[in-house]
Design goal:
Length: about 260
Amino acid sequence: MTSPSPPIPRLDPGTLLKLQRFNTPAVYNGWEQITSRDASREGVNLVPLTDQMPEKGPMVGYAVTLVVEPSNPDHPRQNPQAWPQFWRYVSEQPGPKILLLQDLDQPHAHGACVGEVNGTILRALGCVGAIVDGAVRDVAEMRAAGFKTLSRQLAPGHAHGHPVRWGCPVEICGQAIAPGQLVHADQHGFLAIPPEDEAGLFEATAFMDANECDTLIGTARAATGLDMPELIARLEQAAASFGAKAADHFARGDRAGGEWASS
């Protein structure tokens, strides 16, 4: 039922903590500068998610994956030992970990597999939270346990919540995610980082965040006392500087600068 995760670069705990200090849009801004992927289509959730605990801020970790189908009563009968087997798989993966759960019941969730019990168990197994393409429940209890969750909806019941398969690729809110993939998530949604982009992610994120502050944001916050023509002129100059700094730093004139690349 499980399959070995491909070897990927492991970021040290300090770098993961530094990434956690940025929100997910900031990490996206850095990632799009270093990736060869199409950042407009890959990596992020394409279906809305709700952060059930936005006050806990961002979470970052490596994906452990699970597929469920709460509407189907056959799964518990077919493998009564599935939950302990799944927990064993989770325990064997390096952390920090985030559960990426695909619910086959679409578009409606029949029940929640992640709640107080599984949230507490998963926290004990090294998971910092879960991203669920379906429903969760017991939000207050999971908050108290320190287990952050993002989900499409809430549900009062569990239905026939039971592991179907795990340690496999999953599709979460329209995005394919492999086990072991680095994930950053907050109230905006999630970003799944391709393995080849891990090593340069923090540096790129920190540079782009500072670039914003040094150019466009700094200029806008210094607008007091300026007339509108002068402010617009300064903003145009700041946007050009933002794009030029990114292009120079990343040596990628084709896409460097992100949303301000054409300024």
